[in-house]
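[agent] plan:
  1. take the single chain provided in the ticket
  2. run structure prediction with default settings
  3. attach structure tokens to the ticket
  4. add a short note for the reviewer (M.T.)
[agent] executing step 1
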Amino acid sequence: KKISKRIKGEFFTEKIFVDQAHDYISKHFGEDWKEKYVVWDCCCGTNNLTKDYNFSNLYLSTLEQEDIDNINVEATVFQYDFLNDNYDKLPESLKDHIESGKDIIFFINPPYFKANPMKGIDGTDVCTTDIGEEMRLKKFGMSSSQLSTQFLYRILKLGMRGAPSKEARCYYEQGIQIAYELLRLQELRLK
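[agent] step 2 finished; step 3 output follows
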């Protein structure tokens, strides 16, 4: 089971790093961010990022039902494949937050896995996702096979959905374009 999780890019986030992440977010968004914002860990796994803290509006989603069964916090918890499932599968309350443009903090430690046949790492089953395919069609290159960049791309796309104006949607589109350029440069550096 542990090997299976590693193959999928799933890693346990140690408490020292969780606490540090909370400190960083507090410095940027204010000490009251857990009460002020909707917080969504869209790849929560065993819930290490949020389990020792209180949130006023927390959403937790993960792939594995076993993980969901062991989450014991005040939150909306649901099974959701962030890189493959349709938007319509989200809880209505979360869709309302997204569509109304409510500020959402995606507090995640996404899976870090990239298929690399050159090194004998065949992750085609893991890295082949609907979002990855969309990224490939948009010419995101090798980054479209990295799970972490697929998560970031999907987050930006969700932000565009709730953007209150054409100008705001343009910022999200620019974010996607900047991410593309950075990933393209990284890809060129690796060659």
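[agent] step 4 note for reviewer: Confidence is low (pLDDT under 50) at residues 1-9, 117-123.
[agent] ticket updated
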